[in-house]
Structure formats: structure tokens, C-alpha cells
Amino acid sequence: MKKIIKRLDITIPALCAAVFMLFGCTNTLAEDSYVQPTDWSEGVMATDAWVMAGGGISQTVYSDALHLAYSEDGLTWTALNSNARVFTPTIGSGHIRDPYIFRQNDGTFVLLAADYTEDGQYYDMGSLYELTYGDNPSNCIYVAFSDDLITWKNEHLLQVTNGEGTDGDERHAWTPRAIYNKSDLCYDIYWTGDDSDGVNHVYVTQTYDFISVHDLDSHIIYSPGYSVTGAGIVKANSKYYLFARDADIDYATGEGGDIQAAVLDTWGDGAFSLLSGTYCNRGDDQDTPVYVENPCVYELEDGVTWIMIAQESNYAGT
Fold first, then answer.
1. Residue 318: inside a domain, yes or no?
2. Exposed (0-12), middle (13-18) or buried (19+): which is 258, by Cβ within 10 Å?
């Protein structure tokens, strides 16, 4: 990717929850700057304005809901509703994590998220970082639709896999996102799931409408040989770039825990290949871990600058 990648540090207090739990940026279109639908659906992010979707910083139903912020330049963000939730799901566990808003080819929006505690139990009974939180796996993702990003409708849980996960449990489906598949004329939902050995890969499942899937035989599109989490994909220079966290963390050596990039020449043709072992967000100091995850990468209107925003990890091995 022959463009500039920067890390954007946002310190406005009102945005803390939204930035900490950032899982996706959706481009919105001004009437005088129309872009063909397949452009935004394919992951082309340059636009006149952006909307950031995120969750809160605690493990309550109030916090595990949809929070929104917007920006007119991709650099300065303003939280909506004083950074309180703007929508709370009414189905599944009531807790959603990894919220991501995707614009469909007809211009309407779909909200994708992980239904984080499948049976609705509240695992965190005091500590914000209770490690059993979310350990009850679900092979379904949460889906809702909106015409205006204000009113959400047609909530449902969508099963994306029938694969086997860790210790014989059902495979979990985390950080769901989507991209338009021009070749197959459908949407590809990509998400992070575990195999029977507990290693997380990036899988893809096809859908035409986000109501049902083509089949449950999902396949891997990124697996560098170790666990990865929170993948995000953008298109640039006719290629596709995937950014994900190296989740195989060694806190003693500083390996893992940050963002790496992979590339794919043609969407739907094979799997992504790791560009290098370099961590994008560490810059010149590759030996010093930063510990971030769930990257969102997008291009500014100048057509030259790329921005990466990532969630700061609260768990640093202590």
C-alpha cells in the first residue's frame, strides 16, 4: 500500500468509550459527492464524512449497546447523545460487542455485532476485566437494519457457521464485518472464529440480504499460523488489505499483541498473505509493544493519507 498509515490518538474525554471500543467506521455520502454503491460496499473509505460505531467500556447491558460518533474530516470526532448509548438490542443476550455498521448497495445500513453472552447470563460480577466474560461461545451474530442510523428494525440473530470450536464447543463468531463481493453479487461477512485447537482465524460467510446465509460451510481467508483477532479490510490500488491483531502474545519478549497487515490481489481468490512481521502501529520502535486491537483503517479525503484507529487493550499480561 503506497500510502501513509498513521495512528490517530484521540484524547477528547467525551469520546473515550466510543474510541476504546471502536470496531468500524462507515462512510456517509453528501448529496453533492455521490459515490457508486459498489465503491463504498467494497471497502473504499474516502468520503466527506464518517460515522464511528462502538460500545462502552464496562460489561453491562447499558454499556454493551450501540454508541455513535461522527467526523467531517476523519480526524476530529464528536460523540452523539453525550457518548451514551443510542440503541440497545432487545433480542439475544442483550449484550452486543464489536458493533459494525455497513452500508448496503441500496444506501441503507445494517448493524452487525457479536452476541457476546449467548445464554444472557451476566458473567462479570464486579471486575471490568473478568476473564470469563464472553466465554460462552455463539455461532450467531446480531443483525439489525436502519434507513437513517437513528431507528433500527428487524433485529435477528444470524448463524454464520456450524464449525467446531475450542474443546468441541460451537465455533464463536466475533468482530463481524462485511464487504461487497462483485464477482458473486453478494455480501461477504467476515469474522473471527476459533478452531478445535483454540486458534482464531478470519472466516467468511456469504449472504444476499443479511437475513439468511448461502450456507454454513464458512472458509478461512486469513490464517498466518497463529491466532488473530479483530480483522478489518479496505481496498486500495485495486488490492485488498487486511489489518488484524497478532493474538499470539508473549509478554516476556514483546512479541504479538499489535496490528499486522496482509494483502490479497483479487477478492474471492484464495487467502490473504502476511505482508511482513512488522507491527503497523509500533512505527520505528518495533520492540516496544503498544497492545491495541480491532483496527479500523480508512482514507482521508485528500486521497493520500490513511488513518488507523485501534482499541487500546486493557489486558497487558499482569
1. no
2. buried
